[in-house]
Write a structure and sequence with these properties.
2 domains
């Protein structure tokens, strides 16, 4: 019975994870299924900032290098009740930008979703490109992302996020880069079929008219926006030509908090949009595996781990497959998969009233040389 239960857990995990990876990989090899254009409409580049004094000047410097017509781009910073010098630094540095720029104070209660809700009602450009205060954009990132809106069926677009590193990579950076390789495959494949199932916060764009009525209130505001737009009958695509960079937390505790907050937020969003499985506005071949990946597979991994330990205790022959872990690349991938699913399983039960700024990643970002990025 224990062996059968283990095989069942293993089969579900393999079918959902490996099956979906193969499915999206094959789709990702195909050409894009929406129109891309070269038009450059009016855009607002939106940055929400809470206690970002350490990195906000670098963000302003990075935005100044953006390759987009100055008369077509507005830069809007939302100061989200910062208690440090974030606003002072912004007021001192935004004058160096070649674009129209201003700083507004979030008049709602402090939180990233509330800051976005506040900002959306004060933007009148055709498109919004949102980027995190602790990320850096390639010069052409805005231009490339905006090109996806030449297709009237596209309501949102997400770019690719790459990990910045200084000197020798740490283990956290290596693990995140492994995850990002698979992430890119999944999102490309989903985008070829219909729309992505999760969103990268450091670089995302959407039609302003589609978000005026939104009221964000989850821990995954970017993915919440994605589903809000899909629910209105539009596609949300992925474009790996639009690139943003971020630093991953270098400590285990910060890495854990970052991942578990993300997982908790995505679960909130998925549970609120279950009707998309049956109303025809989102391809079930994307949404169903995504739901299973977050709501079933993590518990299969946990149960399978316990059952496997019992089987090994009964017979050491069951330990033979562990020899594969001696191959470093296989070990790295399996460790990453296992840790991620354990965090996903814990996310619904993790209670935290405040989510702190990840200081280690910001310390690293301060050391990045923009000239050599």
């Amino acid at each position: 019975m224990i062996a059968l239960l283990f095989i069942l857990c293993f089969s579900i995990t393999a079918a959902v994870t490996l099956g979906f990876t193969l499915f999206t990989f094959l789709l990702s090899r195909k050409a894009v299924t929406h129109t891309r254009g070269a038009d450059l409409p009016d855009v607002t580049l939106l940055v929400c900032a809470y206690n970002e004094a350490e990195v906000i000047a670098k963000k302003v410097e990075n935005i100044a290098r953006t390759d987009y017509p100055p008369e077509r781009l507005r830069v809007l910073f939302i100061n989200d009740h910062s208690t440090d010098a974030t606003r002072t630094i912004l007021e001192r540095t935004i004058g160096s930008l070649p674009f129209r720029a201003e700083v507004l104070d979030n008049e709602y209660e402090r939180s990233k979703p509330n800051a976005l809700n506040f900002a959306f009602s004060r933007i009148d450009t055709e498109l919004i490109v949102e980027t995190d205060a602790d990320s850096l954009l390639e010069r052409d990132a805005v231009r490339e992302l905006v090109g996806n809106f030449a297709d009237p069926r596209v309501g949102g677009a997400n770019g690719e996020v790459r990990i910045l590193s200084i000197n020798e990579k740490g283990q956290m950076e290596t693990d995140e880069q492994i995850y990002r390789r698979f992430y890119s495959i999944w999102r490309k494949g989903e985008s070829r079929l219909h729309s992505i199932s999760i969103c990268n916060g450091p670089i995302v764009a959407f039609r302003t008219d589609l978000v005026r009525d939104v009221h964000l209130n989850s821990l995954a505001d970017d993915t919440e926006l994605l589903f809000h737009i899909i629910a209105k009958g539009f596609r949300f695509v992925y474009d790996d030509r639009a690139v943003a960079y971020e630093c991953t937390p270098t400590t285990l505790s910060e890495r854990f908090k970052q991942k578990i907050r993300r997982c908790k937020g995505v679960l909130q969003v998925y549970s609120r949009h279950l009707p998309l499985l049956v109303n025809g506005r989102y391809d079930w071949r994307i949404f169903l595996p995504a739901l299973l990946q977050f709501m079933a597979v993590p518990y299969c991994v946990l149960a399978g781990t316990v059952l496997y330990g019992v089987l090994i205790a009964q017979s050491l022959w069951w330990a033979l497959p562990l020899v594969l872990l001696l191959y470093p690349p296989f070990f790295a991938v399996m460790k990453n998969v296992w840790i991620t699913h354990v965090i996903m399983a814990a996310a619904p039960f993790y209670v935290r009233s405040k989510w702190d700024v990840m200081s280690s990643s910001r310390d690293m970002l301060k050391q990045i040389d923009l000239e050599n990025k």
